[in-house]
UniProtKB/TrEMBL annotation:
Description of how the protein assembles with itself and partners: Forms a ternary complex with ligand-binding receptor subunit IL18R1 and signaling receptor subunit IL18RAP at the plasma membrane. Mature IL18 first binds to IL18R1 forming a low affinity binary complex, which then interacts with IL18RAP to form a high affinity ternary complex that signals inside the cell. Interacts with cargo receptor TMED10; the interaction mediates the translocation from the cytoplasm into the ERGIC (endoplasmic reticulum-Golgi intermediate compartment) and thereby secretion.
Highest taxon, organism lineage: Eukaryota
Residues forming coiled coils: none
Biological source species: Menura novaehollandiae
One GO cellular component term noted in the UniProt record for this chain: extracellular space
PANTHER family listed in its UniProt record: INTERLEUKIN-1 FAMILY MEMBER, INTERLEUKIN-18
SUPFAM superfamilies on file: Cytokine
Name this polypeptide is given: Interleukin-18
Gene responsible for this protein: Il18
Length: 192
């Protein structure tokens, strides 16, 4: 018998009419991401410290911030760009950017000496992402009973989450692997 194909499997959109009025189609990639909305938030860890990005020092860390510092808000007011997704089970795909002075920086992950590093690079977050990207994180609720806190899984590596790591007096933003799916790691807990 003939196999019935559902419309979901092959998303297509008309591109142009050819000279002989034939319709040409371009296949849309299933996991193409399109920016839907932007949230403006500060990111807090379990100690109520705020994530502060200091591009001049090439560092992002959770810090105790006074109300006065928060109002001037250099490097701590984040834009969380939410993308539409065709696979909602993985979590809401988001990208982070932050304004420091008159420049915008976006968060991405890069491999360095075999280790994943979180970086902030100057530039804007794209409106559309054709496929996979090192700037996308999946936003998930931290635990089922706690809907106000989240963990952010790196989209290119399952089980790797944004977290903080104590380095001297710094609580540095880092990527950390969960050893078990059901493990609860407070260093990955981020409140918006």
């Amino acid at each position: 018998g003939r196999v019935k194909m559902s419309a979901e499997e092959i998303p297509v959109h008309a591109v142009e009419l050819g000279k002989n009025f034939c319709l040409y189609f371009d296949e849309l990639e299933c996991d193409a991401l399109c920016k839907e909305k932007t949230l403006y938030r500060v990111l807090r860890n379990v100690n109520s410290q705020l994530l502060v990005v200091r591009p001049d020092l090439n560092v992002a860390a959770f810090e105790d911030v006074t109300d006065h510092e928060m109002q001037s808000g250099k490097g701590m007011h984040f834009s969380i760009h939410c993308y539409k997704t065709t696979t909602p089970l993985a979590g809401m795909p988001v990208a982070f950017s932050v304004q420091v002075g008159d420049k915008s920086y976006y968060m991405c992950c890069e491999k360095e000496c075999g280790e994943m590093i979180v970086r902030f690079k100057e530039g804007e977050v794209p409106k559309e992402i054709p496929g996979e990207s090192n700037i996308i994180f999946f936003k998930k609720t931290f635990t089922s009973c706690c809907s106000k806190a989240f963990k952010f899984e790196y989209s290119l590596e399952q089980g790797m989450f944004l977290a903080f790591e104590e380095e001297g007096y710094l609580r540095k933003l880092t990527l950390k692997k969960l050893s078990r799916k059901d493990e609860v790691d407070e260093t990955m807990k981020i409140s918006l």
